[in-house]
Amino acid sequence: MSHTPLHTEFGGIAALRDALRARKLSAREVADSALRAIDGLAGLNAFLHVDRDLTLAQADAADQLLAAGEAAPPLAGIPIAHKDVFVTTGWRTTAASKMLDGYVSPFNATVVEHLAAAGAVSLGKLNCDEFAMGSGNENSAFGPARNPWDPQAVPGGSSGGSAVAVAAGLAVAATGTDTGGSVRQPAALCGVSGIKPTYGTVSRYGIIAYGSSLDQAGPIARHARDLLEILDPISGFDPRDSTSLQFCDEQPNAPGRIRAAFDQAVRRQDALGSQPLKGLRIGVPAEFFNEGLSPEVASAVEAALRAFESLGAVRVGISLPRTELSIPTYYVIAPAEASSNLSRYDGVRYGHRAAQYRDLAEMTSRSRSEGFGPEVLRRIMVGTYVLSHGYYDAYYLQAQRVRRMIVNDFQQAFSSQCDVIMGPVTPNPAKRIGENRDDPTSDWLADIYTLGVSLAGLPAMSIPCGFGRPERPLPIGLQIIGNYFSEGLLLAVADRYQQLTDWHQRKPELA
């Protein structure tokens, strides 16, 4: 039997923080109720590792901080959870792979450090596609996480467990990573909100790498204001990460930057009264509304665009002509980087080692074939091929050229046509688990609306905007894309829409 966590009785992080500081409840009580709910909904398979003692120790530490009153850090006692690609001390970090089964890191990822410093209480590690490679969480070595709106449906991937935990009310927020849409897509399919910030604004240190030029951490939560509460403190320059940015449009990359931009945008909106988004130009790409888009998703996105127009925004038709090319471009570049990043798992230094082998070469071969799942092996093979002698120029180098063209398409739109871009996140609502088992690459096509953003390194988010057909009413997400370093504006625009609608407040019925 499931248990309703105490934190679900509040409207979000701000309300829960006020209750904790007023000592209406303790961080230990909040954490204990969440842990019992996780046990009660274990069938969703959202969590891969829970350690009650570790969580309650963090909660007790948060209660000590809360006793200090206003001096307590902003997230003291707030229950969150981490995708299982963020290394953590105490909790296992497996990247949902047999290759790292049982691994416990000697250090924390920077994102984990920052949230712990802000007082957040970790509930454990969340399920995901193996090494973050997938779009449905079906590639986890420990079984798929299940969509709380329909346990027979995928939750999206690769951050599927993160979206499930938030949608099912098991955590207030969760961390995820987005390489080609892996925060936005599961958020859309589970009816919650998620944001991928500009590449380089959040440290990648301590995140198990998939595609190094694409991976970016981002939070998943129920609504935009809770995303702000998590994203702002984890943003900042990290000298341990060679891809970390020191400055964002000449502003220091540090906590407070995104919140300041959000507050500025909200003040501007408030000054406009009943038309808070007056003057906001929304670019709508023609390529996002092609024959591959299902009618139910098209209808929900169209209704959302009309809602934005009612708030004063102006719709502008734009073109992103290389949208379809983002699929082959991504699936050359990302596997190439994965092939390089995963070469370290050889059975020698760490990771799974085969029990039987005759020599070093066979040990490495068997260890990798036993430790990696089929999707990871598939992408390693693709990546190794495109980087091999004779094919590097024809595939990898050409894909990098197309990537630059995709960046230019977005910049042309932002420079003269629009302030934000909106459209669908996925062509369809969530498919059933195992639906594409006979065609494992078909899921790659479902990333068509998210890949270009990742290739360009732009910030983007997903917010709930409706449900599918009545006989199978699954959540649908709206994608909002911004120019570089515009996370504050995106969150403010999304927040204004969520003040007008209640899609983000709807919750699945759980046994």
From TrEMBL:
Gene3D superfamilies: Amidase signature (AS) domain. Transmembrane segments: none annotated. GO terms for molecular function: ATP binding; glutaminyl-tRNA synthase (glutamine-hydrolyzing) activity; transferase activity. The keyword Hydrolase does not apply. One of its GO terms (cellular component) is glutamyl-tRNA(Gln) amidotransferase complex. The active site is at residues 83, 158, 182. Residues 42-491 form the Amidase domain. It comes from the Bacteria. It catalyses: L-glutamyl-tRNA(Gln) + L-glutamine + ATP + H2O = L-glutaminyl-tRNA(Gln) + L-glutamate + ADP + phosphate + H(+). One of its GO terms (biological process) is translation. Keywords: ATP-binding, Ligase, Nucleotide-binding, Protein biosynthesis, Transferase. Belongs to the amidase family. GatA subfamily. Allows the formation of correctly charged Gln-tRNA(Gln) through the transamidation of misacylated Glu-tRNA(Gln) in organisms which lack glutaminyl-tRNA synthetase. The reaction takes place in the presence of glutamine and ATP through an activated gamma-phospho-Glu-tRNA(Gln). Heterotrimer of A, B and C subunits. This is Glutamyl-tRNA(Gln) amidotransferase subunit A. It comes from Parapusillimonas granuli.
